[in-house]
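Give me the fold.
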Amino acid sequence: MIRVILPFHLRNLAHVCSEVTLEVEAPITQRSVLDALEVRYPMLRGAIRDHDTQQRRPFLRFFACEEDLSHNLPDAPLPDAVVSGKEPFIVIGAIAGG
């Protein structure tokens, strides 16, 4: 099981608590985790990734094992600790402003 932590606004949209668990088939990548998340919570489609390009939305970042994975290739394998469920895959809403 893959653990995913969502930011507050996406938790509200999906009607979930702080962490969700997903059954994801190998290989475990950002793309496969986000695909599984959007299948289970269809209201998140387009909120994390653009509908057409599948690119990460601005002001969202992906982290795992204290590493920023936001600019990694979507099909790059996630760390073993995420695959084993020891560590969560984290979606963070970035803050900007002056």
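Strands lie at 2-5, 19-22, 60-64, 67-68, 89-93.
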